[in-house]
């Protein structure tokens, strides 16, 4: 490794360490099923997915709120800043009689019929506020989802990605695989899948820092309070 690459790697580690040490002084991370909080999420989703990126036709929203039938079958993750404003959010869709959005909008190049649907989830409606897109909040969302899928026996995770998000996550060390041709669904996007065991094996060998962050007790999932706290 060249000296420049070593310096950059050290800087990334220091940036991440500083973020981790200060995260809970500046942010709060939890899941919620509260109706008023969900309406707040739906309003933000309308602003981002309908107004900013125009991924969703405003005619398919509800009085300025963007939600759909899958929200009733999802775990909603929220990060709030010190001013109690939402800094980041994502939902993890679980199996239901509705199946998954990705299966309705894409044709796969691989056979997924042998997968146990109850052990699949789909990442959806990922939002990080513009001012926080360099604050490692993506890592916290990933950590929360990883803890959830591990505790609930989920082995594969779907995600729909564009040509910006896909290389970003792969570069971060998340070995998502494209499993189908692109489609004009919320932009020009691809169907992707991540196997949880492959993720662990890959990170253990190639990115031990991120592996330790995901698998050790940096954040402890509390079923009773639906909140995330330092262990």
- SSE string, helices as H and strands as E: HEHEEHEHEHEEEHHEE
Measured by DSSP, the beta-strand proportion falls in 15-25%
Question: What general form does the structure show?
Answer: globular
Helix content: 25-40%
List low-confidence stretches.
Answer: 218-231
* CATH topology term of one domain: Aminopeptidase
User: Largest sheet, if any?
Assistant: 10 strands, mixed
Distance between the termini: 35 Å
Number of strands: 10
Rg: 18 Å
Question: Which CATH-level-2 architecture of one domain?
Answer: 3-Layer(aba) Sandwich
- What's the rounded overall pLDDT mean? 88
Specify the CATH class of one domain.
Alpha Beta
Q: For this structure, what is the CATH homologous superfamily of one domain?
A: Gcn5-related N-acetyltransferase (GNAT)
Number of helices: 7
Class by helix and strand content? alpha+beta
């Amino acid at each position: 490794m060249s000296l420049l690459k070593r310096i950059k790697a050290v800087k990334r580690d220091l940036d991440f360490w500083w973020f981790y040490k200060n995260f809970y002084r500046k942010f709060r991370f939890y899941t919620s099923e509260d109706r008023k909080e969900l309406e707040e999420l739906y309003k933000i989703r309308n602003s981002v997915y309908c107004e900013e990126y125009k991924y969703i036709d405003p005619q398919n929203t509800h009085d300025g709120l963007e939600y759909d039938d899958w929200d009733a079958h999802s775990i909603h993750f929220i990060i709030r800043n010190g001013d109690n404003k939402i800094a980041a959010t994502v939902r993890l869709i679980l199996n239901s009689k509705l199946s998954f959005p990705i299966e309705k909008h894409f044709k796969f190049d691989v056979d997924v019929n042998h997968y146990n649907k109850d052990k699949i989830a789909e990442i959806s409606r990922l939002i990080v506020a513009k001012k926080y897109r360099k604050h490692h909040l993506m890592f916290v969302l990933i950590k929360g989802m990883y803890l959830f899928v591990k505790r609930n026996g989920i082995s594969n995770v779907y995600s729909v990605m564009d040509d910006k998000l896909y290389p970003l996550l792969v570069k971060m060390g998340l070995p998502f695989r494209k499993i189908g041709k692109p489609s004009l669904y919320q932009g020009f996007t691809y169907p992707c899948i991540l196997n949880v065991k492959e993720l662990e094996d890959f990170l253990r060998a190639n990115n031990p820092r991120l592996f330790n962050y995901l698998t050790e007790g940096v954040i402890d999932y509390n079923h009773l309070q639906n909140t995330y706290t330092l262990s």
